[in-house]
Write a structure and sequence with these properties.
Rossmann fold, 27% strand, 9 strands, alpha/beta, seven-stranded mixed beta sheet, binds S-adenosyl-L-homocysteine, 6 helices, 216 residues, two-stranded antiparallel sheet
């Protein structure tokens, strides 16, 4: 499992904790520690914002653990030309970190209230390279495809074929895949010359990706 339950009291020691957890990319470390996580958690959890652990954000959803956010961001290998699709905006914490490292992020959240709150945060932070939509992200964003990078921050049962179709040649997708909470693996998928290359980055735990087509 990535990350341990380290008590991280402030942003400075967050960097040390991320390094201990194996994050190496300096730009990723800079981006993660530059984003005030307390702005993304409900008031009741603000004191715990710098713990290296997931926290509730309402509607049974969670803000991811900083180590997991950093690890997924590092795995995407972003640059200033990257056009990123993110499925599962949640609080918008991961979105903001992506936005600091790429050209533009298109992000989709199925819970309208979470989407609206995240959008307000992006505006307050003066970030203009994020486009937000409420809806079922498992369908991707066909009008904006292809994407050079795709990140899914909820666990899918299998690599979503629709999203793979919207990944550009040479692109990278990072997605947690697995049926049960304790059996999910983070996969990094590369599309190269029409071939699909899959790499297992290890076990993770995410809330499920819920598609509109799923039985109620
Ligand atoms: N990265 C987020 C945490 C995401 S939790 C953060 O940093 O805060 C996963 C999110 O995915 C939840 O908000 C959940 O509502 C959303 N989600 C689940 N299935 C989805 C789908 N099909 N389309 C869009 N969002 C989805």
């Amino acid at each position: 499992m990535y990350g341990r339950d380290l008590g991280v009291p402030d942003a400075a020691s967050l960097r040390e904790a991320l390094i201990r957890d194996g994050i190496k990319n300096e730009a990723v470390l800079d981006a993660v520690v530059s984003v005030p996580r307390e702005l993304f958690v409900p008031a009741a959890f603000r004191e715990r914002a710098y713990e290296n652990s997931p926290l509730p954000i309402g509607l049974h959803q969670t803000i991811s653990q900083p180590t997991v956010v950093a690890m997924m961001t590092e795995a995407l290998d972003l640059n200033d030309r990257s056009k990123v699709l993110e499925i599962g905006t949640g609080s918008g914490y991961q979105t903001v970190i992506l936005a600091k490292l790429c050209r533009r992020v298109y992000t989709i959240e199925r819970h309208k209230p979470l989407q609206a709150e995240a959008e307000t945060r992006f505006q307050r932070m003066g970030l203009h390279n994020i486009t937000v939509r409420a809806g079922d992200g498992s369908k991707g964003w066909p009008e904006q495809a292809p994407f050079s990078r795709i990140i899914v921050t909820a666990a899918a049962l299998d690599v979503p074929a629709t999203l793979l179709d919207q990944l550009d040649e040479g692109g990278i997708m990072v997605v947690p895949v697995g049926l049960e909470e304790n059996l999910q693996h983070l996969l990094r998928i590369r599309k190269l010359d029409g071939d699909i290359e899959t790499e297992d980055l290890g076990p993770v735990r995410f809330v499920p990706l819920i598609s509109d087509e799923d039985p109620a």
